[in-house]
Amino acid sequence: MSKKKILIFTDLDGSLLDKETFKFDVIKDYLKELISSGILIIPNSSKTESELLDFNKQYNFDFSFISENGSSIYGLNKIDQSLPQRVVISRSIDEIQKIYDANISLDLKNKITPILELEIDEQQKIFGLPLNKLSLATKRMHSIPIQFRGTETEKNNFIKNIGEIGLTAQSGGRIINICDNTNKSKAMSKAVKLIRKKLGNECITIGVGDNENDIEMLKQTDYPCLVKNENFDSSLINIDNLIKSSEPSPLGWADVIKTAIQIIET
Ligand SMILES: [Mg+2]
């Protein structure tokens, strides 16, 4: 293993976890090997802090992580005691809701389904989660999950509008999240800056994602990796040293990481 510290910033759904079952059993041993070798794995997800804490607990991990599309960073103190337990980057969901309510036209609002206002069974269908996990996914502190029912042009218009009022609309796998003016990339840069102050500059970053809301993050990493996603056209991505998998998650995750580590070590 190289002397340099490797940090893996990874998306979860569709990257590390199977996008339908959310499982990753086939690569669990490999993941544990990486952890034992001293590599730091930092999930960077649209999931909530509650979901990510539950993920840690369920699999006995102790990962620091970034939640709700770059809204906050949790657990950097596990990496170095003097680092903060929580870095909040985003404004609160109430503030975001207020800005949205006051500034988005009724015309556009009519094309939007706020998922948290739906019946529980409909929410379950959209998130693809069992009831006990749904309650964790809806505990949002910084983002409003929606579905957009309109044409592609209307959707792009909506995303532009959202940008003009200082927020962002971020497409993940199943939903769009209305967030503050932050994203996975900004939060990762913040985390890396804090970690580098403690561990020195000899940190190498690997980024793993499978979708549009991961691309900016991948661009900021030394070794950007894209896991195959049938619903995402990767030919439009312009990243020079992009490592792509031919398999979807979770096997594709192990493939790109193996390739990246091999390059780092040679
Ligand atoms: Mg994903």
List keywords for this structure.
266 residues; alpha/beta; Threonyl-tRNA Synthetase, Chain A, domain 2; five-stranded parallel beta sheet; four-stranded antiparallel beta sheet; 10 helices; 19% strand; binds magnesium ion
What does this structure look like?
The chain has 266 residues and is an alpha/beta fold. The chain folds into 2 domains: 167 residues, HAD superfamily/HAD-like (Rossmann fold), CATH 3.40.50; 88 residues, Threonyl-tRNA Synthetase, Chain A, domain 2, CATH 3.30.980.20. Helix content is 37%, strand content 19%. The strands form 3 sheets. The chain has a 5-stranded parallel sheet, with helices on both faces. Strands 6-7-9-8 form a 4-stranded antiparallel sheet. It is globular. It starts with a strand and ends with a helix. 38% of the residues are buried. The site of magnesium ion (MG) has 8 residues, from loops.
